């Protein structure tokens, strides 16, 4: 049975069962001899919601808690999974029945399916991008990393990715999970360049050889350019970017149709036509009308590439957008500290004299020794140590977007935000005292800068965003590195749409395989690298000179670099690191 069908059957049958066979009010049968004239039955509604898991106890999706004790759960190719296999950051589809009695909706089915799974070919930490199977994976501070993080992730690692599809082959990751056992390639996309003679087609940058494929919900005759499919296979040639498919599944149909009474979809806006008022989110097509309401934005905010949560209903087989909420993903502050105050009524907590407010979509996870899976705001206590990713709303409130409970010794020594009280001795970020010493390094947007230049930058532009890494000395964070992240036109507004910067400017920090060596230049992922005598070289964890390093360079070897763009044409490398298989 298709998941689409089971979603609808379970959601609708659950609604009918809960209200005695109808979604309208009815009177209970009187079998006890006692009058029940004062009793009223509840009205239930079938709902379908698609979005990110933000917490457990039961399962929180799109800011709503769904009771999951009776839900059928499918994870990937496992149709009989359990809730323990679900993780924060997964994009899931939930079919549930909601009643008007104030109780949380009862989930009949929860399904998770990864967007893609495969080896990492390139990591650009400065631009916050990962490349997998020819697709660009965008990440940020809100992306959940499981069994890895962006600093330890390496080219060649096999990862599973969940998130939201964007235009032109890019993808915003809500979860990046390191896979250490499974090696099967999986990806979704629209077929292009179908060649029935060669039995190949393209998915993004990949060539798919379907000569030996088995089919689900389709046959080989159904293959056509534009068809949305899921492809799986084990035989992958990284040099030619060719995957020999073992299975191809038709994913053209959405998981819902017009039998669902309430629909909530979170994702990235695509194909927006302002004249017709039609746009798509996660391949679901919505239509605006005069009654559409907007939250944290307006009609003028609606644009391709913006992350939204859309609540809608079916009307004449058309999904009408009743409410659109704009989601801020570009968080501007990062801090960690101990809870000194808590207000359960207002759902706020205080760290470092900053009051944080939580919202229904706040993401929770417990990484402390308590390791409580159902950790939510209700479990936060005074003296808990928390890591918090946050933003400022239009009223100046500090909104916690991501909350992790940690142990004090597991503090990372990282804070990010706007600067106050800066001097040669230190500064304050997010009410955290930051100290400087003779070893503190300062990085501008393009290169290393002096402390005098840093002070000038932050004093002349109060909107500047600064990230600090260091170690704590009591309550003071002693900065090892201070990096200016945004200057000039960046005003710190969080519209979730700050990916317009030219990658060929400012700092560069990435890891990838050497594609070619042409004279003194080295090319990685289309980027030209140039070295000099001032470049710091490291070969197999040892410092070496330019000639020794250059002699070790080979096509296919993974190189990790830091540098700056020059004239938007090449990268002047300041640090380069190479690991070879040579044992000397």
Explain this structure.
The protein is 6% helix and 49% strand. By secondary structure, the protein is mainly β.
Instruction: Provide the residue-averaged pLDDT.
Output: 88
Class of secondary structure makeup:
mainly beta
Q: Which stretches are poorly predicted, pLDDT < 50 over at least 5 residues?
A: 1-38, 488-502
Binned strand content: over 45%
Report the principal-axis shape.
globular
Main β-sheet description: 17 strands, mixed
Helix content: under 10%
Rg to the nearest angstrom? Answer: 26 Å
Give the termini separation.
59 Å
Assembly of the depicted chains: single chain
> Count the strands?
47
- Number of helical segments with 4 or more residues: 3
Describe the structure using short key phrases:
5-stranded mixed beta barrel, mainly beta, disordered N terminus, 3 helices, 584 residues, 17-stranded mixed sheet
List the helices and strands and how they pair.
Elements: H1 3-18, E1 44-56, E2 59-61, E3 64-66, E4 72-75, E5 78-81, E6 91-99, E7 106-112, E8 116-124, E9 129-132, E10 135-138, E11 144-146, E12 158-165, E13 170-178, E14 185-190, E15 192-195, E16 200-203, E17 206-209, E18 214-216, E19 228-233, E20 235-237, E21 242-244, E22 247-250, E23 262-273, E24 278-281, E25 284-287, E26 293-295, E27 307-315, E28 318-326, E29 333-343, E30 348-351, E31 354-366, E32 385-392, E33 398-406, E34 414-420, E35 426-429, E36 432-435, E37 441-443, E38 448-449, H2 451-460, E39 465-473, E40 476-486, E41 507-518, E42 521-524, E43 527-530, E44 536-539, E45 542-544, H3 546-552, E46 558-566, E47 570-578
Parallel strand pairs: 1-23, 4-7, 10-13, 11-13, 17-21, 18-22, 25-28, 26-28, 31-33, 36-40, 37-40, 43-47, 44-47
Antiparallel strand pairs: 1-2, 1-6, 2-3, 4-5, 6-7, 8-9, 8-12, 8-14, 8-41, 9-10, 12-13, 14-19, 15-16, 16-17, 19-22, 20-21, 23-24, 23-27, 24-25, 27-28, 29-30, 29-32, 30-31, 32-33, 34-35, 34-39, 35-36, 37-38, 39-40, 41-42, 41-46, 42-43, 44-45, 46-47
């Amino acid at each position: 049975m298709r998941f689409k069908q089971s979603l609808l059957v379970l959601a609708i049958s659950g609604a009918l069962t809960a209200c005695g066979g109808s979604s309208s009010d009815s009177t209970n049968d009187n079998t006890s001899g006692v009058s029940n004239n004062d009793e009223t039955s509840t009205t239930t509604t079938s709902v379908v919601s698609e979005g990110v898991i933000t917490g457990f106890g039961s399962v929180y999706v799109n800011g709503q808690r769904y009771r999951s004790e009776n839900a059928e759960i499918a994870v990937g190719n496992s149709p009989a999974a359990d809730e323990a296999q679900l993780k924060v950051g997964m994009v899931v589809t939930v079919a549930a029945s909601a009643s008007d009695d104030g109780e949380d909706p009862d989930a009949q089915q929860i399904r998770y399916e990864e967007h893609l799974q495969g080896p990492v070919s390139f990591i650009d930490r400065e631009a916050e991008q990962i490349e997998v199977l020819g697709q660009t994976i965008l990440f940020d501070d809100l992306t959940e990393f499981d069994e890895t993080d962006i600093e330890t992730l390496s080219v060649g690692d096999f990862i599973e990715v969940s998130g939201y599809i964007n235009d032109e082959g890019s993808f915003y990751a809500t979860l990046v999970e390191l896979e250490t056992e499974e090696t099967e390639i999986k990806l979704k996309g629209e077929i292009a360049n179908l060649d029935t003679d060669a039995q190949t087609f393209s998915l993004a940058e990949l060539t798919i050889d379907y000569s030996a494929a088995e089919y689900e919900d389709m046959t080989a005759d159904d293959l056509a350019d534009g068809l949305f499919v899921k492809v799986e296979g084990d035989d992958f040639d990284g040099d030619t970017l060719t995957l020999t498919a073992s299975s191809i599944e038709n994913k053209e149909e959405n998981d819902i149709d017009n039998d669902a009474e309430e629909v909530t979809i979170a994702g990235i806006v695509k194909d927006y036509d302002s004249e017709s008022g039609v746009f798509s989110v996660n391949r679901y097509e919505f239509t605006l009308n005069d009654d559409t309401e907007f939250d944290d934005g307006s009609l003028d905010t609606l644009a391709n590439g913006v992350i939204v949560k859309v609540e809608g209903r079916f009307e004449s087989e058309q999904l009408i957008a009743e409410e659109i909420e704009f989601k801020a993903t570009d968080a501007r502050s990062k801090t960690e500290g101990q809870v000194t105050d808590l207000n359960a009524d207002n759902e706020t907590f205080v760290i470092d004299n900053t009051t944080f407010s939580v919202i229904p979509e706040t993401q929770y996870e417990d990484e402390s020794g308590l390791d409580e899976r159902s950790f939510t705001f209700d479990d936060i206590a005074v003296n808990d140590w928390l890591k918090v990713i946050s933003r400022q709303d239009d009223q100046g409130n500090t909104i916690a977007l991501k909350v992790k409970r940690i142990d004090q010794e597991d503090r990372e020594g990282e804070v990010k935000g706007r600067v106050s009280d800066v001097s040669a001795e230190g500064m304050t970020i997010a009410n955290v005292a930051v100290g400087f010493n003779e070893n503190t390094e300062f990085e501008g947007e393009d290169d290393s800068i002096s402390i005098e230049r840093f002070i000038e930058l932050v004093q002349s532009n109060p909107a500047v965003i600064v990230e600090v890494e260091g170690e704590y000395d009591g309550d003071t964070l002693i900065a090892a590195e201070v990096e200016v992240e945004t200057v000039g036109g960046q005003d710190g507004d969080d519209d979730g749409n700050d990916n317009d910067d030219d990658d060929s400017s400012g700092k560069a920090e990435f890891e990838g395989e050497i594609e070619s060596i042409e004279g003194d230049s080295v090319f990685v992922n289309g980027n030209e690298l140039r070295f000099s005598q001032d470049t710091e070289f490291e070969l197999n964890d040892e410092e070496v000179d330019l000639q020794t390093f250059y002699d070790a360079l080979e096509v296919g070897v993974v190189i990790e670099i830091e540098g700056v763009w020059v004239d938007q044409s090449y990268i002047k490398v300041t640090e380069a690191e190479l690991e070879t298989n040579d044992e000397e």
